[in-house]
Amino acid sequence: MNFKEDIKPISYIKTNAADMLRRVNETHNPIVITQNGEAKAVLIDTESYQDMIKTIGILKLISQSEKEIEEDKLVDNADVFGKLKENLKR
Questions:
Q1: Which domains does the chain have, with CATH numbers?
Q2: Residue 1's pLDDT band (boundaries 50, 70, 90)?
Q3: Max CA distance (Å), the chain
Q4: pTM, entire model
Q5: Are strands 31-35 and 38-43 parallel, antiparallel or unpaired?
Q6: What is the Cα–Cα distance from 90 to 2, expressed in whole angstroms?
Q7: Rounded CA gap, 75 and 27, in Å?
Q8: Distance CA 30, CA 20 (A)
Q9: How many C-beta neighbours within 10 Å does residue 31 have?
Q10: Per-residue pLDDT at 32
């Protein structure tokens, strides 16, 4: 992130929206939008956003798995595959 170029006041975004969209899509750098000197929003390209959502989903699965390991909620893979085979036979 380039703080000089990637932090813009909302008034700048209003007058240069098309240019800002072009820039985030070309550089994949988010733009922090400020209002009254405070960061209020982030403009990000859709590809980066989708990647971020996928990453968050994976991290949630890892966190859930770690929690289940800590709580000793483990299931032997032979049991899992055995139950799957039973269900497929039905």
A1: 3-44 (3.40.1620), 47-89 (no CATH)
A2: low
A3: 65
A4: 0.69
A5: antiparallel
A6: 60
A7: 45
A8: 10
A9: 22
A10: 95
